[in-house]
Amino acid sequence: MTRANINFVYQNKGESPRTLFVYHNGDQYPTGLRNNYNVLELVKETITIERFKKWVAENYRDDKLEDLGEGGQPKIYYTDGFITDYSYVFEPEEISVWNWKDKIFEGSRKKFINWIKKQ
Description:
119 residues; alpha+beta; 36% strand
């Protein structure tokens, strides 16, 4: 099993950035996200709060989506005392991916689509 932090960072006008977050334990390698969790469906268009919530609800049915609030930072590497294998940070047009503490991808949705298809 592969533990992962899945984050979506967005900003409402006049507020600090906010983060929506879900933790999942199970095939969260980039290939698993691509093949089993339909991440290409999420990133095919600009990622919005509604699109992210729908994607999480459809693909992480038993996991709770948390709103980390205004100023909430994405969870990378650790969650509730567990080291996570992967951390994904989705923003409306940018995506970052970490494997343990190492950033292994950062770029636009288009670059992410190409990167994850090559995995």
